[in-house]
Amino acid sequence: MRLNHLSYAILLTALPTASFAAGLDRSGQSISAFLQPGNYAEAGISVLDPTVKGKDNKGHLVGDMGDDYYFPSAAVKVQATDKISLGLLYDQPFGADATYQVDGSDFANSVEGTGVKVRTNNLTALIGYQPTENWNFYAGPVYQTVKGNVSLRGTAYSSLSGYNIELKEDEAYGWLAGAAYSIPEIALKAAITYRSDIKHELNTTETSNVYIPPNYLPTLPSGIDLRSVSSQAEVVTPQSVNLDFQTGIAKNTLAFANLRWVHWDQFTVSPTLLKHPMINQDLISYSDDQYSITTGLSHKFNSKWAGTAAVGYDSGAGNPVTTLGPVEGNWSVGLGGQYSPAENYFIQAGVKYFWLGDAQAQTGGKVKGEFTDNHALGYGLKIGYRF
C-alpha cells in the first residue's frame, strides 16, 4: 500500500478551503506542505462567505453582519540532504471581518454600523531532521504581524457608541516544534506540532464621546477627557497544538483526521480607554479554549483524478461571545477534487459548508442580542508542484 507522490498530495493538502473557527482562528496553521516528500512548493487562496443574522434585545432583526473575506497561503520545502529538510510557510492565521448594517438594530446608528477588521500575517521557517526513514523532528522561528480597526455604533454600547480604535501594525516572534512518524508501507503518517503564543504591543489611537465632567464621580479625578487617547495595547495570539493522522485503509484510499487545540481561554484585548474605571470593559474577550476535529477520506480514482470528503466540528471559544463575532463553533462538511496533468504538479479545488453555532452577543458583560440559525460557505483553490 505504499503511496506515490500523487496520493500523498491528496491527503496532506486535503481540502484547501477557508475556515470559520473559534475566536479569531482562520487558517488552522497547517504544516502539511513541510511534510511532503522531496522538494515541493504550493500556493493557494481561500474565500469565506458567512451569513450571520440575529435579533437585538428589543426584538429588532439584525441583518447579515458577516463580511466576505479571502486569505492566501504559500509554502516551499527543500530536502537539502537525506536527513535535513528546510521549509518556509506563509499564512494568515487569525483575523476578523464584520460590519453591522444600518437597519434600526441596537448595533448601528442612523449612519453606520459597528465594524471590525483584524489582519495577521505569519512567516514560519522550519528545519527538519530525519534520523531514519520513519522519524522527522522539526522546529523553527515564527515571524508575525498584527493590525486592526474597530468601531462601535448603536445603543448596545451605551456611551461607547461612537468609539473607534486603530491598532497599528506590530511585529513579534514566536516558535514551533514538532515530530512526525511514518510507515510508508501502510501509508501511515502521524504528526504533532506545538506553536507558542506571540506577544504584541500595538500602538493604538482611541477616540470616543466619553468625558467625565468636574465632580461627576468623587472617587475619580474630575474633568478627564477620554475623547482621544494614544497608548499601547497588549495582544497575545494564542498557543496551539495540531495533531494530524492518516493511514491507508484500502487500495488508493486514505482515512485522515486533524485535531486542533487553541488556548483562547482568558484571551482579552483591553485598550487604555476601555480599562478606565468609568468604563472598565474589554474590547474582545473569550472564556473557553477551542477544540476542533476534521476527519474524512481521500481516494485516487486514476492517475489524474482524486477526491476528498470530510466532516468537521469546532467547539467555539465560549458563550456569550463578543458582538464582533457572535458565533459559537460550527459543524462542517466539505468536498474537494484534485487534477494532476503530470506526475509533478496538481491543481486542487474544494468547497465547505458550515452550520454556525447559535450564540449570545455581549458587550460590557451584558447580553445584547441572540444570533441563531446561521451558516457559511467556503471555497478554496491550490496549486502544488514538485521539483
Describe the structure concisely.
The chain has 387 residues and is mainly beta. The chain is 3% helix and 57% strand.
How would you characterize the overall build of this protein?
By secondary structure, this protein is mainly β. It has a single domain, classed as Outer membrane protein transport protein (OMPP1/FadL/TodX) (Porin, Beta Barrel), CATH 2.40.160.60. Helix content is about 5%, strand content about 55%. It has 2 helices and 26 strands. The strands form 4 sheets. It has a 14-stranded antiparallel β-barrel with strand order 1-4-5-7-8-9-10-15-16-19-20-22-23-26. A 5-stranded mixed sheet has the order 3-2-25-24-21, with no helix packed on it. It has a two-stranded antiparallel ribbon with strand order 12-13. A hairpin with a 4-residue loop joins strand 4 (about 70-80) and strand 5. The longest helix is centred in the first third of the chain and has 9 residues, at about 5-15. It is globular, with a radius of gyration of 23 Å. The two termini are about 25 Å apart. The model is unreliable at about 1-15 (pLDDT under 50).
